[in-house]
Amino acid sequence: MTISPQENGRSAASPPMQPRRRSRLVLKLSLVAVSLLVLVAAVLGGAAWYFSSQLLDVRPDRPSYNLKILALGHTTITLPRTGSTQRPGVYGLDWPGGRVSLGPIVSMTRHTVVRRFTGNIRDLRTGDFVDFDVAVFGSPAGFHARYRTVQIPDALGPMPAWYIPGRLHTWVVLVHGYKASRTDPLRAAPTLMALGLPVLDLSYRNDIGAPTSPDHLYHLGATEWQDVEAGVLYALAHGARTVVLYGFSMGGSTVESFMYRSHYAGRVRAVVLDAPALDWGATIDLAASQRGLPSLLATVTERVIAWRLGLWDLSAINAVSESARLRTPTLLFHGTDDQLVPIGPSIALARARPDLVTLVRVAGAGHTESWNVASERYTAALREFLTRVLEK
């Protein structure tokens, strides 16, 4: 029997894969791909949830008391040389029994820093442990102010605040920052007092001594602005005709949220912002890059945060994108060495609204350290701005 070459080639080749076997292979590969995608999504989502929880956690920063006093003189104190203790400027040094103001550097070695201090060190000894702090004053008593603690009526319950009286009918409402307390904004209070401005230093939801939010989370200003509104209403009910809002860090984004959402924004005569978190997306991106995290994770984390806050996305609390709506003179301080809140959005806001925004960049200042690093320049800019605004 003669076999043609074509028939011989077909018989020598492998038999074609049957349709059923091919379908099973495609199904298996599809299941593997879907499983991998689900696994990646689960890992990415879990990581995003973890990082969002870190950011929204309301537990305040506690003093570390990790600096050992190496020597103590009548006007000087010797500390270990660290990135913080060698920074120029004025800072606070606190311990469980008190606080002093830490001033200029006298001398430095490879391992130690000698700085001048002012204040009472009666119960402090060599070998004790202290904490280095940007907050110089522990209360208004630290600069000999006459003050009292008041309770601000709020939808969540009474919010404690410090009230420092003044002769003018424009009050300054101070709003502290992320994981901080009412002690932080007090650095500006002596200048405000000298101008005759009454000062109301607020606490807000989730602060120690204040009511908690229903979900026990920070909302990055998206709901905290309501507590600022309560403070403004308190001021207006107790003699204020207008107010100046003064926000630090997250307090800055809270102030801006108030300005864009509150019916009482028209009673605000001026705004002062110190290292404000104007763009939370940029802040999260900075934190992710510092930790070497992929940009995709940062993007997913931003979406998770927005979802947990009941927002479509974080642009809802982006003050830069809302700059066209700005109507109030604004003084903005930001340090060039801020490693927590990037200076870029502050620059962008000043460029977008040069008619209303005055930006003071402080070289070498870290987060909310502009006053500490350059107190004279800071004070002069604050005094000039407020004097000009109040004269109108």
Overview of the structural elements:
- By secondary structure, this protein is of the alpha/beta class.
- The protein folds into two domains: 67-133, Elongation Factor Tu (Ef-tu), domain 3, CATH 2.40.30; 140-279 and 318-391, Rossmann fold (3-Layer(aba) Sandwich).
- Helix content is 34%, strand content 21%.
- It has an eight-stranded mixed sheet with strand order 8-9-11-10-12-13-14-15, with helices on both faces.
- Helix 4 (225-237) packs across helix 5 (250-261) and helix 6 packs across helix 7 (295-308).
- The longest helix has 38 residues, at 19-56.
- The model has no long low-confidence stretch (mean pLDDT 90).
User: How is the CATH topology of the largest domain named?
Assistant: Rossmann fold
How many helix segments? 10
The N- and C-terminal alpha carbons lie at a distance of 114 Å
Number of strands: 15
How many domains make up the coordinates?
2
* Biggest sheet strand line-up: 8-9-11-10-12-13-14-15
Order of helices and strands: HHEEEEEEEEEEHEHEHEHHEHEHH
List segments where confidence is low: pLDDT < 50 over at least 5 consecutive residues: none
- Structural classification: alpha/beta
Question: How many whole angstroms does the radius of gyration measure?
Answer: 28 Å
